[in-house]
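step 4 of 6: structure.
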Amino acid sequence: MARPRKPLLSRDRIVATAGALVDAEGLDAVSTRRLAAELGVSGPSLYNHFRTKDEILEAVADAVSAKVDLSMFDEHDGRDWRTALHDWAVSYRAALTDHPNIVPVLARGPGRRPAGLRVADAVFGAMVRAGWPAAQATHIGALMRYFITGSALGSFARGFVDDETAYDPADYPHLGQAHLLAERQQQVDEGAFETGLRALLDGLAVRYEAAVRH
Amino acid sequence: MARPRKPLLSRDRIVATAGALVDAEGLDAVSTRRLAAELGVSGPSLYNHFRTKDEILEAVADAVSAKVDLSMFDEHDGRDWRTALHDWAVSYRAALTDHPNIVPVLARGPGRRPAGLRVADAVFGAMVRAGWPAAQATHIGALMRYFITGSALGSFARGFVDDETAYDPADYPHLGQAHLLAERQQQVDEGAFETGLRALLDGLAVRYEAAVRH
DNA sequence: ACCTGAACACCGTTCAAGT
DNA sequence: ACCTGAACACCGTTCAAGT
């Protein structure tokens, strides 16, 4: 076959197929040979479009970041900083829980991913505009990211096994019914996220009062 | 050689060596062959002590969890719930930043790891004793974990490259000096952690007032 | 019970060769 | 420029064989 007149591959097609494979079968299912087979080419062909497999996964992660709604940070949106932060956090978490298998890649910081940086930029800009000092605005972007990605990655309940015998009450005196948590995994995660988000925003509001009063 | 009179390996020795390798060279450096070589045995020997490589890494992560100070949750410690939560969070984060390379494994939830579960149990127990309703106590354990592991994993600044030319101000209007962040990476992360932790605790204190007043 | 070497079915990546 | 097959240096894991 060698080179066809029209390229068989493009970066977008590789990223889309890799993303679908990650969603369907997890991060471990993505090998260059498997991904290439899914695309109808041979493994090494991918290296004409990406330098490493890791760059492909970074691009998949960035495509998820690109889905995060940022309209609440628009200059003329009208939402106050607190509401904007809340709505953004909910949108961000939704984007991550829609694609849980790529979260481990995404959670490692915005890195060089354009969409990830765009998110950081939007939060920072909106907080400064709302009156936050620049240093605090940087902190807010970072700490919100910690909480949101942490919640998408570290599902508390996911770890528990749906088997009572797995937990000896003598070892974990307060977690005697931990197995129940596995059943209501999503409720716990969503409740913890909502509680944490509100607590975070309440706490920031206190600091905001102190900050703008310089 | 075959079987020696005294076992060459033990689970503890494997975990200790794997942990040292992870710390020194990162998660990717740990292959069964490499780890075995470090231990002076051949690769398959590890399978007499662990079922999979993943179980070894889980054990390494659990050993880090075991270093987290939990004394502030002791029944007779005397610290109020808020101070205990703060001190625990600081200790937890310190344990993680001491061993950053294993954090991706640890961040995926407590799973079946005994020490991870012991941490969850201690937090839950102390919050209930302090007067929090059980459902809220579960949420607090989860959301604190989200924030702490998220902060250890997703260093905001780490991602930025120490090269001004990497960021076109036209793309990220508010991050024009993002390259500066790389220089003060630790300060940003620590500041964001401290700010977020205090905000979280302030916010929880508000909810506590409402909760205990049933 | 606990170690070994050989083997199986994979990996990511490089590279010369083809059009 | 963009694809190919062959090759290199690896993987995790299984298993029969040894003591």
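step 5 of 6: annotate
 - Chain A has a mean pLDDT of 91.
 - Chain A touches chain B through 66 residues (CB under 8 Å).
step 6 of 6: archive
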